[in-house]
Design goal:
alpha+beta; five-stranded mixed beta sheet; three-stranded antiparallel beta sheet; globular; binds protoporphyrin IX containing FE
C-alpha cells in the first residue's frame, strides 16, 4: 500500500469523488492531524503535496515568488495536458501579476463599489422575489431559481454585458468551469473539447464587445479593461480579453455555490436561521460564516520555484502543491468549534478567498451578493426543508451544488 492509500479511498483531486461524496472532511481532518504536508502520489496525474493546515496556506499564499500560480493552477487527476486557454490574471506571477493587478484593483474596493450597492441589491431582490412570485408556498430548485442567476446577473451587469446576453455567459461558464461534469459537456464531446468550444465562443463574444466599448466607453468593466495601459502603451488585446474572462469565470460558480451551500446550512441549522432572522445586524458575520462553512473553492495549485522545507518535508523545485482551502477553514488550531455553523462567529479568519498576492479580487462583490440575497429572502422564510437529494457537481476545483430542491413557505410581504 502506498502512503496516500493509507489515508483513504477518497481521491483528493478526482471530480467524481466530490460529486458522489461531497467534501472529504474526515480525510482532511486526519491529514491536518497526522501529516499536514502530505505527498499525494496515488494519482494518474502528477503527484503533489497536499497542504491542509491554515498556517501553511497563509505562508505559501504570502510567498508568490517562491510558490508560483503558473503554469499549473489546478491539479488534475489525469495525465497533464497543455493549458487550453491563455493565462489570465490568476495564472500569472510577479512582477507582471503585480503590475496587472494594480491596474484594476481599485475598481473592486468596498469604497468604489458603494455607489453600486443599490443596483446590486435590486438585481438580488428581483431574483429572490422570483421564489414567492406565484405563491408563498412552493417547491423549487434553489440553484436554478436563485443561486445560479444571481452571480451571473451581477457580473454581467458589472462588465457591461447587455441584458439579453446574460444567458449566454451563464451557459459558457457552466461549460468551462463545469467541464468535468458530464451534464455540462456538449453532446458528443469530451470535457476538453467542450470547454474549448465554450471558451472560443466567449472570446469571440468579448472581442466584439471590447471593440464596441472602446468606440463608446461607458462606466463598466469592459470599458475599463479596453483602455488599460502599461508605461503609456495599451496592453495587448489578448490581455484585455483574459481580464474579461477571469471576471466571468472566477465570479460565477464560486458565488453560486456559496449561496446554495449557505442555504443548505440554514436548512440544516434552523436555530441559526432563526437567530439571524431575530438579529438582522448579524448579517455581515453570517455571510462570512457562510463563506467559511461552504469554502466553495476546493483547491488551487502552486508550483515550487525553489527547494523549500515545510514542517520537516522537503519540497523540491518544480514540485506541485495543492492548497485545500476547505480544510484550512476547519483547522482546529484557528477556529473554535470548527465543525459548527455560527452566524455570529468572531473572529473568523477564514481563507476561502485565498491569501496574499492573488487574494480574491471579487471578495467584496461576492459578499454583497450574498448579503443582499439573504437580506431579502431569509426574513421571509417561515418554513423551509430539503425536498430531495442534493446533487453535486463533478469537480475537484469548485465544490458545486447542481441542484438544491427545497420546499418552502414564505411570509407574505406588503
Ligand atoms: C464566494 C465567492 C468566491 C470565492 C470563494 C472566491 C475564491 C477565490 C480564491 C480562493 C482566489 C485566490 C486564488 C489564488 O490564491 O491563487 C480568488 C481569486 C480571484 N477571484 Fe475570487 N472568489 C469568489 C468570488 C469572486 C467574484 C464574485 C469575482 C469577480 C467579481 C472573483 C474574482 C477573482 C479574481 C479576478 C481572482 C484572481 C485575483 C488575482 O490573481 O490577483 N471572485 N478567488
Amino acid at each position: 500500500m502506498n502512503d496516500s492509500a493509507k489515508f483513504s479511498d477518497f481521491h483528493l483531486v478526482h471530480p467524481q469523488h466530490y460529486a458522489a461524496r461531497g467534501y472529504p472532511h474526515p480525510v482532511w481532518t486526519r491529514l491536518r492531524r497526522d501529516d499536514p504536508v502530505h505527498w499525494w502520489d496515488r494519482t494518474d496525474g502528477i503527484p503533489f503535496w497536499a497542504i491542509t493546515k491554515h498556517a501553511d496556506i497563509v505562508t505559501i499564499g504570502r510567498d508568490p515568488e517562491r510558490f508560483l500560480n503558473g503554469p499549473r493552477l489546478v491539479i488534475d487527476h489525469e495525465p497533464e495536458q497543455p493549458n487550453l486557454f491563455p493565462p489570465t490574471l490568476i495564472q500569472i506571477d510577479p512582477p507582471k501579476h503585480t503590475i496587472y493587478r494594480k491596474l484594476i484593483n481599485k475598481r473592486f474596493t468596498p469604497g468604489r463599489l458603494r455607489p453600486l450597492h443599490a443596483d446590486i441589491e435590486n438585481i438580488a431582490k428581483e431574483i429572490v422575489d422570483g421564489l414567492g412570485r406565484d405563491s408563498d408556498e412552493g417547491r423549487a430548485d434553489f440553484v436554478e431559481k436563485v443561486s445560479a442567476p444571481l452571480p451571473i446577473a451581477v457580473i454581467a451587469w458589472l462588465l457591461g454585458v447587455p441584458r439579453e446576453d446574460w444567458n449566454l455567459l451563464f451557459d459558457w461558464t457552466n461549460r468551462t468551469i463545469g467541464a468535468t461534469d458530464p451534464e455540462f459537456q456538449t453532446e458528443g464531446q469530451d470535457s476538453r473539447a467542450s470547454a474549448l468550444q465554450a471558451m472560443t465562443e466567449l472570446f469571440e463574444y468579448f472581442t466584439r464587445l471590447v471593440a464596441k466599448k472602446r468606440a463608446q466607453p461607458e462606466d463598466d468593466l469592459v470599458s475599463l479593461f479596453s483602455q488599460l495601459e502599461v508605461d503609456g502603451e495599451p496592453i495587448p488585446e489578448m490581455d484585455v480579453l483574459t481580464f474579461c474572462l477571469i471576471i466571468v469565470v472566477a465570479g460565477n460558480e464560486t458565488t453560486r455555490n456559496a449561496t446554495s451551500g449557505g442555504m443548505l446550512a440554514f436548512i440544516e441549522h434552523q436555530d441559526q436561521l432563526r437567530k439571524l432572522q431575530q438579529n438582522p445586524g448579524l448579517m455581515p458575520s453570517a455571510v462570512e460564516e457562510v463563506v467559511r462553512w461552504t469554502s466553495p473553492l476546493i483547491h488551487f495549485g502552486r508550483t515550487a520555484a525553489e527547494d523549500y522545507e515545510l514542517r520537516g518535508k522537503r519540497i523540491k523545485a518544480g514540485d506541485a502543491l495543492a492548497l485545500f482551502y476547505p480544510s484550512a477553514n476547519r483547522d482546529e488550531e484557528v477556529f473554535e468549534d470548527p465543525f459548527s455553523f455560527h452566524v455570529d462567529r468572531s473572529p473568523n479568519n477564514h481563507v476561502a478567498f485565498g491569501v496574499g498576492e492573488h487574494y480574491c479580487l471579487g471578495a467584496h462583490v461576492a459578499r454583497l451578493e450574498l448579503e443582499f440575497a439573504y437580506k431579502h429572502l431569509l426574513p421571509r422564510i417561515e418554513e423551509i426543508e430539503l425536498d430531495g437529494p442534493v446533487d453535486r457537481l463533478h469537480s475537484a476545483l469548485v465544490g458545486g451544488v447542481k441542484r438544491l430542491p427545497i420546499h418552502y413557505k414564505l411570509k407574505r410581504v406588503g
